[in-house]
Amino acid sequence: MKKVSKRLSSLAVLAVSIALLGGCQSQSPTTTAAGGDTPAGSSTPATNTQNTQGLKSVRVQLSFLKQSLDAPLILAMKNGYFAKEGLNVTYERGFGNADTISKLGTGKFDLSFSDMYNALEFNEKNPNDRVIAVAVTQNAAPFAILSLKDKGISSPKDLAGKRLGAPAGDGPRKLFPVFAKQVGLDPNSVQWTTMEPRLRESFLLQGQVDAISGFATSALPGLLKGGKKPDDINIFYYNDNGLEFYGNTILAKASFVEQNPDTVRAFVRAYMRGLQDTLRDPSAALDAVMASDESKLMDREAERVRLQVALDRMLINPEVEKNGLGAIDPARLEQTLKQTAEGFGLKTTPAVADIFTDKFLPPKEERALPTDRKPLS
Q1: DSSP β-bridge partners for residue 237
Q2: Are 38 and 187 part of one and the same domain?
Q3: To 10 degrees, the CA torsion angle through 184, 140, 253, 103?
Q4: The domain containing residue 99 runs over which residues?
Q5: 189 falls within a domain
Q6: What CATH number should be reported for the domain holding residue 74?
Q7: 333-343 pLDDT, tens per residue?
């Protein structure tokens, strides 16, 4: 737990100012145009037609509500990177990874942000609407089990006999049997309680469950907002326990990729520039996200906690330094695909090429990890 405490200590100064996170969760769905932060009028799925400015329309769905983790997209729009690539990008909020992937498969959106692992399950059930990842936006997934220290759960094995809570479709919950196997825990030794996503942290804070599964980037700000300090919380990251999962990616329907390769390549190139800007100056990136919030309900300190977790764990590591932003380690992905197939009970284990392609990534030198990085303040 020294490793977890060290990471959490960088967030302690932020905890006292966390407030109104629930306000962020009440944002209304928005669609935003590439040229600025004003709503786009249409809510219909994007088409491959040219708009009046001669830019190609691209409809994008987020994985959930707009958050600080979406800073690369917001900066690529704000700084005109998409427009320079000939694209008019609009986006709408998502309702969770599974829902996002389903809507992408139906063609409602051209591109989406979600993880590859939920996509595996979708692809097995919908082979004619298969989706594929064209770039990794988060090199490590925030999958985790979170508990309060007063519950006496100081290691994953201490979960035996405890009550765990999560929504039914929660990815880390679905992968819990694999996590349990890795840490030497009988997955049947825990009792699950199901609740709505917005109630997950409340159940833990109120003592209705002993621990929760979920994305640390979502759960941690909620627990801090509920009055807990970083030192009050134990976080068991899946990636610290033998499950080297990648986080969210840029996904597209395979048929869209085949029919619009230049559009996909242009989008990825512009997004990578936005990601580099985010890493170079995360405080300015956070400012841009907050400025784009028309509802004015997003809480800056909650979003700063979320972004700090991403910087510490999800975006910067030796693999990214070696391979560049957006890429994968084939051996690592192959191993996590096997683990996911087992955890989700898939009929077959997909090959790396079935779910990821690097043919749309810019040259490595154009997506290098910035060396002139400022701390988040």
Answers
A1: 144
A2: no
A3: 80
A4: 31-140+246-367
A5: yes
A6: 3.40.190.10
A7: 999 999 999 98
Residues 314 and 254 in one domain: yes
- Model pLDDT for residues 245-288, shown as the tens digit of each residue: 999 999 999 999 999 999 999 999 999 999 999 999 999 999 99
Task: Supply the pTM of this predicted model.
Answer: 0.86
The strand pairing partners of 230, in sequence order, are none
Q: What share of the chain is helix, strand, coil (3-state, %, to 5)?
A: 50, 15, 35
The secondary structure of residue 296, as a DSSP letter, is -
Q: Are residues 264 and 222 in the same domain?
A: no
CA 120 to chain centre: 16
Return d(Cα 374, Cα 377) in angstroms, integer.
Answer: 9
Q: DSSP labels for 306-365?
A: HHHHIIIIIS-SHHHHHH-TT---HHHHHHHHHHHHHHHT-SS---HHHHB--TTSPPGG
Domain endpoint, select from 216, 240, 264 = 240
| Residue 210 located in a structural domain | yes
In this structure, are 98 and 42 located in the same domain?
yes
Scanning the structure block, which residue is given the tokens 């996909």?
A: 264
Is position 377 within any domain?
Answer: no
Give residues with Cβ within 8 angstroms of 127, minimum separation 6.
none
Please state the φ and ψ torsions of residue 153, each to the nearest 5 degrees: -100, 95
Domains of the chain: total: 2
CA distances from 282 to 19, 67, 83, 374 (A): 21, 13, 22, 7
CA–CA gap between residue 79 and residue 274 (Å, rounded): 8
Tell me the pairing of strands 111-115 and 248-253. Answer: antiparallel
pLDDT reading at 4 higher than 90: no
Q: Are residues 252 and 347 in the same domain?
A: yes
Q: Both tokens of residue 165? A: 């809570």
Tell me the CA distances in angstroms from 169 to 47, 165, 186, 344, one per residue in order: 30, 12, 21, 11
* Separation of CA 285 from chain center: 17
